[in-house]
């Protein structure tokens, strides 16, 4: 276990993709539990990865939202970096669905996805000295959404987030293939609509407990995404509310111009279904 002044590291929580590891620890100053994300030493010599790690910490400093994980500290020590975050109790959305719900009822799925939309809409519009026009998350998926008591929601892991600008393209192909729209997979122009695609995939998965885009390779998955080649939700779960299907179709449009352009637009349509 690494040694960080002011913190006791107790156990490994998870692997943070291919870039690091997350530990459970205790803040000695106040006794509070923390999650400590360590950048692998093998990546600490890569300036682009280190800059992304620092940028993640900077983003958290300026983002103040009840549904976004709070930054506690950022430490550079012995040739690597540590991002120290509040420790969240609960289950990730994929664990919650797998162990407790299966396909979610309308009210539950609607409540959770509306909170996600409100939260992601907030970061799209947040202004910081480093990203005055907002931030893109770029890795929205069930494993990056924590569900707590009373269906509380926390959006996590902004490790590949990016600022919003007129020249914003995906310089490195980062993300989770089954949740990435064509412009993210092929270094196109990114925008709020990019996160909305991932939210659409997440919503589909919540309603039917199955991904819309599946394949034996990343190339096969991306081809299906580019052609909007996915089964209607009712194929996986015949009792799904079919009034959600036009919303999912619009969120999963391969052409970003035909997608929802803001999270608020998608939220309005979901609320209409829930209130019918």
CATH topology of the largest domain: Transferase(Phosphotransferase), domain 1
**What does the overall shape look like?**
globular
Q: Unreliable runs, pLDDT <50, ≥5 residues?
A: none
Strand order of the largest sheet: 1-2-3-5-4
Secondary-structure element series: EEEHEEEHHEEEEHHHHHH
> Could you say which structural class the secondary elements and strand pairing correspond to?
alpha+beta
- Estimate the strand proportion: 15-25%
Please provide the count of β strands: 10
Q: Number of helix segments?
A: 9
What do the pLDDT scores average to? 90
Question: What is the terminal-to-terminal distance?
Answer: 54 Å
Our Rg estimate from Cα atoms comes to 19 Å
| Count of all domains | 2
Considering the protein shown, what is the CATH homologous superfamily of the largest domain?
Transferase(Phosphotransferase) domain 1
Query: Biggest β-sheet, characterized?
Result: 5 strands, antiparallel
Q: In the CATH hierarchy, what is the class of the largest domain?
A: Mainly Alpha
Helix content: 25-40%
The CATH architecture designation of the largest domain is: Orthogonal Bundle
């Amino acid at each position: 276990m690494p040694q960080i002044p002011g913190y006791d590291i107790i156990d490994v929580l998870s692997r943070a993709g291919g870039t690091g590891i997350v530990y459970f620890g205790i803040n000695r100053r106040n006794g509070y539990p923390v999650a400590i994300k360590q950048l692998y030493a093998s990546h600490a010599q890569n300036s682009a990865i280190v800059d992304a790690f620092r940028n993640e910490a900077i983003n958290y400093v300026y983002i103040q939202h009840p549904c976004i994980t709070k930054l506690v500290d950022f430490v550079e020590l012995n040739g690597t970096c540590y991002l120290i975050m509040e420790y969240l109790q609960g289950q990730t959305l994929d664990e919650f669905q797998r162990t407790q719900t299966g396909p979610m009822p309308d009210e539950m799925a609607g409540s959770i996805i509306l909170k996600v939309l409100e939260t992601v809409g907030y970061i799209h519009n947040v202004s910081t000295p480093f990203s005055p026009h907002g931030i893109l998350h770029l890795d929205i998926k069930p494993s990056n959404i924590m569900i707590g008591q009373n269906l509380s929601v926390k959006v996590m892991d902004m490790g590949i987030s990016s600022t919003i600008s007129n020249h914003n393209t995906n310089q490195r192909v980062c993300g989770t293939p089954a949740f990435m729209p064509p412009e993210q997979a092929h270094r196109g122009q990114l925008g709020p609509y990019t996160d909305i695609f991932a939210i659409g995939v997440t919503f589909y998965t919540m309603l039917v407990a199955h991904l819309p885009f599946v394949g034996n390779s990343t190339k096969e998955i991306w081809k299906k995404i580019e052609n909007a080649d996915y089964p209607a939700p009712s194929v996986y779960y015949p009792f799904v509310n079919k009034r959600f299907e036009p919303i999912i179709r619009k969120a999963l449009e391969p052409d970003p111009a035909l997608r929802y352009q803001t999270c608020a637009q998608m939220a309005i349509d979901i609320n209409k279904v829930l209130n019918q």
